[in-house]
Design brief:
CATH superfamily of the largest domain: P-loop containing nucleotide triphosphate hydrolases
Bound molecules: adenosine-5'-diphosphate, magnesium ion
Number of helices: 10
Number of strands: 13
Structural class: alpha/beta
Length: 284
């Protein structure tokens, strides 16, 4: 598969502080890649370098085939960016904000209507952005990023601070974009979100990539995972923790599942456990 994002030994320092320490990874065409890590790990700095906002101290990166520095202008035409910080004009309406962005980029009016429909913004199109809730502002920012039909979309903590319904809606939008082949890089510190959405994740800790794989392989790679099961037997609740590596596990679990009413069953060792082990103690 073609790499749509190629990062080689990318570094950035602020004064004596090394925010990003020579990280390398690739994101394949159409892939949804999650950059995870606690506050201060270097996620935003990485996204800023990949979107041409900050000059790397060393290393290189290509996005959609263009060098993020040497071919910055061509690269910018292929990407959409959604940052944490509000970048909308608060007094302008949703439609005016999008229209302004469209005028700057020279897009077609149909793109604006598509973006409004895709994000479900019809009802709010004439409302000033300052009167919108965070969830609707976020939708407006995503609509704006989609105006140019980008091949690659960068989203920095797109769901932080949103309520569960808004998060669900955003996930649906991202999944539909993935189905259309848009390559995405998103940052998050929500491991449930990362495990659900991302094809692969990279975990950043103090500016270094400490893991890079699919969520499934990171979860499976953990030692000592167990199945915790709770069931009704003779009128009372029973609990057991069965190591997944135990040769007897299928027999034990089969007996409970086959003969009793199960209340709850779960496996320990989530992506959150992987994350906490690798970034342990860091601010989150
Ligand atoms: N413009 C800047 N000037 C000085 N330090 C910065 C600047 N931007 C980021 N940093 C520092 O770089 C580190 C990484 O920050 P950032 O990339 O924002 O992390 P994250 O997005 O993972 O929370 C932090 O220690 C932060 O304080
Ligand atoms: Mg950040």
């Amino acid at each position: 598969m073609t790499a749509t994002i190629e990062v080689r030994e990318l570094s950035k320092s602020f004064g004596s502080m090394q925010a990003v320490k020579g990280i390398s990874f690739t994101v394949a065409e159409g892939e949804m890649f999650g950059l995870l890590g606690p506050n201060g790990a270097g996620k935003t700095t990485t996204v800023r370098m990949l979107t041409g906002l900050v000059r790397p101290a060393s290393g290189s990166a290509k996005v959609a085939g263009f060098d993020v520095q040497a071919e910055r202008q061509q690269m910018l035409r292929e990407i959409g960016v959604v940052f944490e910080l509000p970048a909308l004009y608060p007094r302008l309406s949703v439609e005016e904000n999008l229209g302004f962005a469209l005028a700057l980029r020279g897009g077609r009016r149909a793109s604006l209507e598509d973006a409004i429909a895709r994000l479900g913004l019809e009802e709010y199109r004439h409302r000033p952005v300052r009167l919108l809730s965070k969830g609707w502002r976020q939708r407006t920012m995503i609509a704006r990023a989609l105006l140019s039909h980008p091949q690659v979309l960068f989203l920095d903590e797109p769901t932080s601070g949103l309520d569960p319904n808004a998060v669900q809606h955003l996930h649906d939008v991202l999944r539909s974009l993935r189905a259309e082949g848009v390559t995405m890089l998103l940052t998050t510190h929500d491991m449930v979100e990362a495990a659900e959405l991302c094809d692969r994740v990279g975990i950043l800790s103090h500016g270094e990539l400490v893991a890079l794989d699919t969520p499934a392989r990171l979860i499976e790679g953990q030692q000592g995972r167990e199945v915790r099961i709770t069931w009704w037997e003779d009128g009372s609740l029973h609990e057991a923790a069965v190591p997944l590596a135990d040769a007897e596990a299928p027999v034990l679990l089969g007996r409970v599942l086959g003969q009793h009413r199960v209340l709850q069953i779960e496996t320990t060792g989530t992506l959150d456990d992987v994350y906490r082990r690798l970034t342990g103690g860091e601010e989150a």
